[in-house]
Amino acid sequence: MTDGTMEDNQSGAKKKVARVLIITIDTNCINAKQEIKELNQLEEFAEKGQVQIVKTDVLDTEFIKYEGKKGEKSKVKAAEIPEDIGIGVLAHSRLDHTKLASEEEAKQFNEIVELLFDKPLYKLTNHSRLVRDAMHLHTHLIHQRDIFVSTDYTHI
Fold this sequence. Notes:
By secondary structure, the chain is α/β, with parallel strands linked by helices. The chain has a single domain (5-149), classed as Rossmann fold. Helix content is 38%, strand content 14%. The protein has helices at 37-47, 57-63, 68-79, 103-117, 128-142; strands at residues 5-7, 14-16, 21-25, 51-56, 83-84, 147-149. The strands form 2 sheets. The protein has a 4-stranded parallel sheet. It has a two-stranded antiparallel sheet with strand order 1-2. α4 (103-117) packs across α5.
């Protein structure tokens, strides 16, 4: 179905079908309490098969520090979402949820960091959230997803 066609089982003829958009969500879009109406709508589209929602490995890494009732609810909801694995970034990735970067992927990641924050990666050592934001976007790009959704408004 990658070319936008599907074979009709009865006639064997190909017919055009709409490709389902694949949407990567940021950690802030888990919407565990269902309080953000736009994200509720997005989830309804996914339930109807109109879009597919995926997360990056970074999302679960960020949830490690979440505690309490909201944290548990968010973790449970996140566990149901398919995960895209990104490149390993020292001090930011979980070893069992990462892959080694190719030279091209490492270069692309560094370009994203500089584009977003106007500084190289080594200058973001005290800014874990910023590094992980770049990791989310990079994973989204290497998996060639269609739309990245975030409620961040400062740099994404």
